[in-house]
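COURSE: Structural Biology Practicum
ASSIGNMENT: Worksheet 4, Part C
STUDENT ID: 0417
INSTRUCTIONS: Below are two proteins. For each, the amino acid sequence is given first, followed by its structure token string. Answer the questions at the end about the second protein only.

PROTEIN I
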Amino acid sequence: MTTACVGGGVLQWWTSGNMNTRKRIELNGCRSRGFLVGTTPIAKLTKNASLLMGPRTGRKMRKTFPVSPVMEWQDCSAKIEADVPASFAYDCYSDRESIPNWMSFISSVNVLEDKPDQSRWLLKYSVLGRDVEFSWMARNLQPIRNQKIHWRSLEGLPNRGAVRFFPKDSSSCKVELTVSYEIPQILSPVATALKPACERVLFLGLEKFAAYAKDSYQSKVA
């Protein structure tokens, strides 16, 4: 009878002949017990071995190690003037779960109840007719009240960013958004070519933010 273990299953079949030899073989560095029935090999295979080529010849298998690509940060930025006080613009942007109202490519932002400085982000957009989706966990770093909100991803899509608020007068301000994402250095030329499109998306988002903040402010003071 011939027996083989493949992928955790056991296959058995009968052959003619008597068991006349018995030996041990090794596959992928793991020892397995094998038998020979006549001229037909019977072997237990490891889960990693799909084909028994024969007994070891004494040659050592060459080890391979994964190579991590060299990474670099790519920055994209945009700025706009908003007809609201800097303090009000700051408060609006501090409400992270409202960000999808002006950043259309952000599908959702969920702040963790037990860790309010952390939030899970979901980004969706279409490329060449295909839907692309990314998610990441981010942590808000120590803000500067009415001046700066900044964050960095903890897991998922590597990114970091900051929103800065510059008062112009008592009723208006300038808002500047910078987003950085980490990519393999080999893709740097592609990222550079796409930078204008990325910054255009950020600018359109800030335009919506300025309108959103103005409507919210007018509703508040009315």
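PROTEIN II
(use this one for the questions)
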Amino acid sequence: TQTTPSHTSTTAVPMVWNDTVVYHVPEDVAKVLAIRYHIVFPIFITLGILTNAFCIAVTRRKKLRALHSNAYIQVMAVLDIMSACAYLPFVFDNEFCLYKNYTQAFYFTRFGFIIVNCIRSSGTYILVFLTYDRFLAIWFPQTFQKVKTKGVLKKRLIILLIWISVSFIP
């Protein structure tokens, strides 16, 4: 006779797609996924939205608004809030990324993941722009005075939007 280890569950939760059982997930794995997606994930999303809203409120103060780097920090905070909101459909998905119908699968694969990746990548590029500006401010102060205008930030954001849109087209 074959024995099962005591730490594994013998019962399994069926994962269904189009009324067909695709595979069975062990019950203990299903519990971990449920805790991860329905308890931990919403806590992180809520904390992310609240802390980034606080960051925006602090950097919008009159004394801090004049600092050039705060514009980048505000854009990063807005992108983080957008990212947290883009993750919300994944929290409400009860099947742990195994979709019940074609429409739901199409949305998540064609739009959901792409939207999340576009927003997260935009935040990374904003961080690169901020690092580049700090480099110019330290090593080439005269050049930095020319780059310090709001017009340069807007041009970079437009270039970033075009770059991200082109690189994530499915």
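ANSWER KEY EXCERPT:
Q1: Helices lie at 27-59, 62-65, 68-92, 102-139, 141-147, 150-167.
Q2: The chain is about 75% helix and 10% strand.
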